[in-house]
Write a structure and sequence with these properties.
membrane; 43% helix; alpha/beta; 10 strands; Rossmann fold; transmembrane helix; Alpha-(1,6)-fucosyltransferase; alpha-(1->6)-fucosyltransferase activity; transmembrane
Length: 588
């Protein structure tokens, strides 16, 4: 009965609507409405042709500095539009919920656009402005700041200033002013500030590459690093009393970067003991097309161990027979292999290794005393000095790695903090002085807390006890029990089976470099050869530096690579983060 009444009611309503639609007054209203639409369209068309902006795409004229967001200091406010993005929006149904929020699909589209646009700026060949605009519908200067990327060009400029003596042999500006703040223009006109910055290094100043207090680093780290720099940068390299030790990096087949660093640490110890300036020569791992300006040199990746003046003088003396006879210059062949690998640790600072902080955990116990404590302390100091400043190339490698791992998360974070209409409406505010000279010194963003884990397996079994990935994760769980907000892991390993096993831990976020890994058990030399020199050098260095910057570290002290990572962390303000190792060093 009820359905019949409902159909009757619908029929009556339909007939009534038909009658109204055919009435003269309704027709007049429809015609009037259509005429109004036509007149409005005509008015907008005329306005578009005369004005500086158009409502058709809601595109506003803009002025742009055309700079990359990593180098931009534009003082012009831009309000521009992405026509490409708008056309995509028109093709996609959009809706807003009761709280006024855009659907997830639209958010994902904005995140993808920003992530890809940032990534384009990191390519080997950065696209021209016109190419970039055509591809993304955006200008480079319209992109929001990149929290996870570093301004590599600026960092290299600042670091060069901090690593170079100024006129008349004056000391670099190692004051209490940090990074870019030393370049603040107002200090160049204020006589008191200029005088302060030009003073020789004092007891209160310390090398700017050291992070944290004395208590947060190995004993005497700040003093030792300062003394090594002074030793390696004499005021006058042509002084006849200056002696040199020139040595290539180890290049025997099968020697990894860790072994090369350990060998150079021994040569630096010899140089300090004999009061010689160490000058490094050929570095085979930089012999690839990525190191264009510094082919075959350590300077492709890190700042050189001494000044260019001393290097020129040393290579000049190499051809001087008398200099060799007098001992003014020596080479690596002047020493036996054992003298290099087990070099006597310099005693000019006493024996600070005798009171190393016991922060290394093995099998649930802290290791307070062990064999070769002096070597552990010295290698940490030597490697920290050799890797004190990254070059623009190395900085770029880290930018690419961070963007691949964290780019999407960074984009989500940035988009949540800016206008939700981006990129339809983009506002670029002028960069303030605090952004340019103070906040620019902050390290790039990574999701924290971050645990770095280096899982060494494969042919390393011939040198140390190798354990399964599950045991590394047991240690990770121990850290998480104390720091329950820990869930991010930067994983470095040469084994594909380790990567595969990460699927068994869905509550952890694993990040790792995208590189071909070993399947089965082959030698490290064979594996590196399969990758090529460029990849087999770049990706381990990225993993190494990411481990140094991480909040926690799990590794195997039986691995030289892990041993050196631990040393870099203990001279980089990370002593109190501790170190969980799955085994002991093989010499303990």
């Amino acid at each position: 009965m009820e359905p019949t009444n409902q159909k009757f009611l619908e029929r009556v309503v339909s007939q009534k609507a038909l009658q109204m639609g055919s009435s003269f007054s309704c027709q007049i209203c429809v015609v009037g409405f259509l005429c109004g639409v036509c007149l409005t369209s005509l008015f907008l068309a005329v306005l578009t042709s005369v004005g500086t902006f158009g409502f058709t795409g809601i595109s506003f004229s803009s002025l742009s500095m055309g700079n990359s967001p990593l180098n931009s200091s534009s003082e012009i406010i831009n309000v521009i539009t992405s026509s490409d993005y708008q056309s995509k929006v028109k093709e996609t149904a959009r809706w807003v919920d009761s709280k006024g929020r855009e659907p997830e699909s639209d958010d994902d589209e904005r995140v993808s656009l920003l992530t890809e646009a940032w990534g384009a700026l990191l390519a080997d060949r950065e696209p021209e402005e016109s190419e970039f605009s055509k591809r993304f519908g955006l200008s480079k200067s319209s992109l929001p700041n990149t929290p996870h990327l570093e301004n590599c060009k600026l960092s290299a400029q600042v670091n060069k200033r901090l690593d170079t003596r100024s006129g008349a042999g004056r000391f670099p500006p190692w004051t209490t002013w940090k990074g870019s703040l030393n370049m603040y223009p107002a200090t160049e006109t204020d006589e008191n500030l200029r005088s302060f910055k030009d003073q020789p290094v004092s007891d209160g100043a310390y090398p700017p590459w050291i992070v944290g207090s004395d208590e947060e680093n190995y004993p005497l780290t700040r003093k030792v690093q300062s003394d090594i720099w002074i030793h390696q940068h004499p005021v006058n390299c042509h002084d006849p009393n200056i002696k040199f030790l020139v040595a290539d990096w180890e290049k025997l087949p099968g020697f990894g970067i860790g072994a090369q660093l350990a060998g150079m640490a021994g040569l630096l110890a010899i140089a300090i003991n004999e009061k010689r300036v160490l000058v490094t020569g050929y570095f085979n791992r930089a012999d690839h097309d990525g190191c264009k300006a510094s082919h075959g040199s350590w300077s492709c990746y890190f700042f050189l161990e001494t000044s260019q003046e001393c290097r020129d003088r040393a290579f000049e003396l190499i051809t001087n027979k008398e200099a060799w006879e007098k001992g003014t210059i020596k080479g690596k062949d002047s020493y036996k292999s054992k003298e290099i690998w087990t070099a006597k640790v310099p005693r000019v600072w006493g024996d600070p290794w005798s009171y190393l902080q016991p922060t290394t955990d093995i099998n649930g116990s802290l290791i307070a005393v062990h064999h070769k404590m002096d070597r552990r302390w010295w290698r940490a100091q030597a490697v920290r000095y050799l890797m004190r400043f990254q070059t623009e190339y190395t900085c770029g490698l880290l930018n690419v790695a961070r963007h691949a791992a964290f780019g999407k998360e960074a984009a989500k974070m940035v988009l949540a903090s800016i206008d939700r209409d981006w990129p339809k409406v983009i506002t670029n505010q002028p960069k303030s002085e605090i952004e340019e000279f103070v906040w620019s010194n902050h390290r790039p963003w990574v999701p924290r807390p971050l645990l770095s884990m280096h899982v060494r397996m494969g042919d390393k079994a011939c040198e140390m006890k190798v354990v399964k990935f599950e045991e590394y994760m047991e240690l990770a769980h121990r850290i998480q029990m104390h720091f329950p907000h820990l869930k991010n892991v930067w994983l470095s390993t040469e084994m594909q089976e380790v990567i595969d096993k990460t699927r068994s831990y869905p509550h952890w976020n694993f990040y790792y470099t995208n590189v071909t890994r070993q399947v089965g058990n082959v030698s490290m030399a064979t594996y590196e050869a399969s990758l090529g020199r460029k990849t087999s050098t770049n990706y381990p260095l990225v993993n190494f530096l990411m481990a140094v910057e991480s909040d926690f570290f799990i590794g195997a002290l039986g691995s030289t690579w892990c041993f050196l990572i631990d040393g870099m962390r203990n001279t980089g303000g990370k002593v109190m983060a501790g170190y969980l190792s799955v085994n002991k060093d093989r010499f303990w």
